[in-house]
Amino acid sequence: MTPSPGRAAVSVTARPASADVQDEIVALERRRRELLDQLAAIGPFRSGSVTALIRPCGKPGCRCSEPGDPGHGPNLRLTYKVDGKTHSESLPTPAAVRRARRQIAAFRRFQQWNREFVKVNASICRLLAAAREPERVSR
Ligand SMILES: [Zn+2]
To answer: Is this model's pTM higher than 0.90 or not?
Structure first.
Protein backbone atom coordinates (compact mmCIF):
# COMPACT_ATOMS: atom_id res chain seq x y z
CA MET A 1 0.00 0.00 0.00
CA THR A 2 2.39 2.70 -1.16
CA PRO A 3 0.45 4.21 -4.00
CA SER A 4 0.42 7.57 -5.64
CA PRO A 5 0.83 10.24 -2.91
CA GLY A 6 4.44 10.73 -3.92
CA ARG A 7 3.69 10.79 -7.61
CA ALA A 8 0.71 13.07 -7.13
CA ALA A 9 2.84 15.52 -5.14
CA VAL A 10 5.46 15.58 -7.88
CA SER A 11 2.94 16.25 -10.61
CA VAL A 12 1.39 19.01 -8.52
CA THR A 13 4.68 20.83 -7.93
CA ALA A 14 5.19 20.76 -11.68
CA ARG A 15 2.00 22.80 -12.05
CA PRO A 16 1.73 26.50 -11.46
CA ALA A 17 -0.24 25.87 -8.24
CA SER A 18 -0.17 28.43 -5.49
CA ALA A 19 2.06 27.59 -2.52
CA ASP A 20 -0.98 27.54 -0.26
CA VAL A 21 -2.71 24.91 -2.33
CA GLN A 22 0.45 22.82 -2.45
CA ASP A 23 0.87 23.03 1.33
CA GLU A 24 -2.71 21.96 1.78
CA ILE A 25 -2.27 19.02 -0.57
CA VAL A 26 0.88 17.92 1.27
CA ALA A 27 -0.93 18.10 4.62
CA LEU A 28 -3.91 16.16 3.27
CA GLU A 29 -1.68 13.50 1.77
CA ARG A 30 0.06 13.15 5.12
CA ARG A 31 -3.34 12.69 6.75
CA ARG A 32 -4.25 10.18 4.07
CA ARG A 33 -1.17 8.08 4.88
CA GLU A 34 -1.92 8.33 8.62
CA LEU A 35 -5.41 7.04 7.96
CA LEU A 36 -4.08 4.13 5.93
CA ASP A 37 -1.84 3.20 8.87
CA GLN A 38 -4.83 3.44 11.20
CA LEU A 39 -6.85 1.10 9.01
CA ALA A 40 -4.22 -1.60 9.41
CA ALA A 41 -4.67 -1.35 13.19
CA ILE A 42 -8.46 -1.79 13.16
CA GLY A 43 -9.19 -5.32 14.29
CA PRO A 44 -11.64 -7.70 12.65
CA PHE A 45 -15.08 -6.15 12.65
CA ARG A 46 -18.69 -6.81 11.87
CA SER A 47 -21.86 -4.78 11.82
CA GLY A 48 -24.72 -5.68 14.10
CA SER A 49 -25.89 -5.30 17.63
CA VAL A 50 -26.06 -7.35 20.77
CA THR A 51 -29.66 -7.89 21.76
CA ALA A 52 -31.17 -9.51 24.82
CA LEU A 53 -33.90 -12.01 24.15
CA ILE A 54 -36.43 -12.96 26.81
CA ARG A 55 -39.07 -15.41 25.70
CA PRO A 56 -41.11 -18.40 26.75
CA CYS A 57 -39.75 -21.80 25.75
CA GLY A 58 -43.17 -23.19 24.88
CA LYS A 59 -42.77 -26.40 26.91
CA PRO A 60 -46.06 -27.32 28.53
CA GLY A 61 -46.00 -26.93 32.30
CA CYS A 62 -42.88 -24.72 32.34
CA ARG A 63 -43.14 -21.77 34.68
CA CYS A 64 -42.78 -19.48 31.67
CA SER A 65 -46.26 -20.48 30.49
CA GLU A 66 -47.77 -18.88 33.61
CA PRO A 67 -49.49 -15.57 32.88
CA GLY A 68 -47.23 -12.64 33.64
CA ASP A 69 -44.02 -14.64 33.42
CA PRO A 70 -41.80 -12.93 30.86
CA GLY A 71 -40.02 -16.14 29.89
CA HIS A 72 -36.44 -17.33 29.92
CA GLY A 73 -33.43 -15.18 29.53
CA PRO A 74 -32.15 -12.76 28.83
CA ASN A 75 -30.22 -14.64 26.19
CA LEU A 76 -27.78 -12.42 24.39
CA ARG A 77 -27.62 -12.69 20.63
CA LEU A 78 -25.77 -10.97 17.87
CA THR A 79 -28.24 -9.55 15.35
CA TYR A 80 -27.14 -8.30 11.95
CA LYS A 81 -28.40 -7.81 8.44
CA VAL A 82 -27.16 -9.35 5.22
CA ASP A 83 -28.76 -8.11 1.99
CA GLY A 84 -31.63 -6.63 3.99
CA LYS A 85 -32.33 -9.89 5.78
CA THR A 86 -31.93 -10.06 9.55
CA HIS A 87 -29.81 -12.85 10.97
CA SER A 88 -28.95 -13.65 14.52
CA GLU A 89 -26.36 -15.76 16.27
CA SER A 90 -26.38 -16.93 19.83
CA LEU A 91 -23.70 -15.57 22.13
CA PRO A 92 -23.49 -18.46 24.56
CA THR A 93 -20.68 -17.27 26.82
CA PRO A 94 -19.59 -13.97 28.36
CA ALA A 95 -16.44 -14.26 26.25
CA ALA A 96 -18.55 -14.51 23.08
CA VAL A 97 -20.51 -11.43 24.15
CA ARG A 98 -17.32 -9.48 24.81
CA ARG A 99 -15.87 -10.54 21.46
CA ALA A 100 -19.03 -9.53 19.58
CA ARG A 101 -19.08 -6.14 21.33
CA ARG A 102 -15.41 -5.61 20.47
CA GLN A 103 -16.07 -6.48 16.81
CA ILE A 104 -19.06 -4.13 16.64
CA ALA A 105 -17.01 -1.32 18.22
CA ALA A 106 -14.31 -1.92 15.61
CA PHE A 107 -16.96 -1.67 12.90
CA ARG A 108 -18.00 1.76 14.21
CA ARG A 109 -14.36 2.84 14.13
CA PHE A 110 -14.17 1.60 10.55
CA GLN A 111 -17.24 3.63 9.61
CA GLN A 112 -15.70 6.76 11.14
CA TRP A 113 -12.45 5.96 9.37
CA ASN A 114 -14.32 5.52 6.10
CA ARG A 115 -16.09 8.86 6.42
CA GLU A 116 -12.84 10.69 7.06
CA PHE A 117 -10.97 8.82 4.34
CA VAL A 118 -13.64 9.72 1.79
CA LYS A 119 -13.53 13.34 2.93
CA VAL A 120 -9.74 13.60 2.78
CA ASN A 121 -9.62 12.02 -0.67
CA ALA A 122 -12.34 14.30 -2.01
CA SER A 123 -10.44 17.32 -0.64
CA ILE A 124 -7.24 16.16 -2.32
CA CYS A 125 -9.09 15.72 -5.61
CA ARG A 126 -10.64 19.17 -5.36
CA LEU A 127 -7.26 20.76 -4.64
CA LEU A 128 -5.58 18.83 -7.44
CA ALA A 129 -8.24 20.13 -9.79
CA ALA A 130 -7.69 23.66 -8.49
CA ALA A 131 -3.92 23.28 -8.90
CA ARG A 132 -4.43 22.26 -12.52
CA GLU A 133 -6.99 24.91 -13.29
CA PRO A 134 -4.64 27.13 -15.39
CA GLU A 135 -3.86 24.24 -17.72
CA ARG A 136 -7.51 23.34 -18.08
CA VAL A 137 -8.46 26.90 -18.97
CA SER A 138 -6.12 26.83 -21.97
CA ARG A 139 -7.71 23.62 -23.28
ZN1 LIG B 1 -40.03 -22.23 29.80
So the answer is: no
